[in-house]
Amino acid sequence: MSTTPEPSGGLTLRPWHDNDAAALVAVADDPALHRWTGMRAGDTTEALRWLAVQHAGLADGSRYTFAVVDDGQHLLGHVVLKRGERPENLAEVGYWVAAPARGRGVAPRAVTILTGWSFTRFPELTRVELRHQSDNTASCRVAVKCGYAYEATLAAAHPYPQTGHLHALERTL
């Protein structure tokens, strides 16, 4: 059983490395990332702090985070499977895409790869959820493209300052 998803469709999901800090800083100065995510990496120190959180989550099994890169190893985005403080059969997927990679199908492909890997890697997992702010129509399209069914509109709650949508994908047996 692989500890990382298999490359697919020109994308590789690989663990983050500290030497990704410069690439992270290069993509982080993006108003859309600031609007939709909590990721901040204005300089190398801040990027290394963000990367340390990703490493810690991987080490304790609460967050399986991956850099999304193309065949040339250019940073396209980030995907994460969140498992901490949830029932063992439940996880949540999150993601962001760097501005230069948007509109190329990176998010749906990366989320699909991560979701498939998740159900294989964790046989006890029966449900993966995807949450986004209600006005984030691009994330709503990603959820639908990946087969995540809309389930509910959620009240604003940390880390979402506005109402949100809950989408879910159940394991098919």
UniProtKB/TrEMBL annotation:
One cellular-component annotation, GO: cytoplasm
Domain of life: Bacteria
Domain N-acetyltransferase: 11-173
GO MF annotation terms: protein N-terminal-serine acetyltransferase activity; protein-N-terminal-alanine acetyltransferase activity
Gene3D superfamilies: 3.40.630.30
Protein name (Swiss-Prot/TrEMBL): Acetyltransferase
Species whose genome carries this gene: Winogradskya consettensis
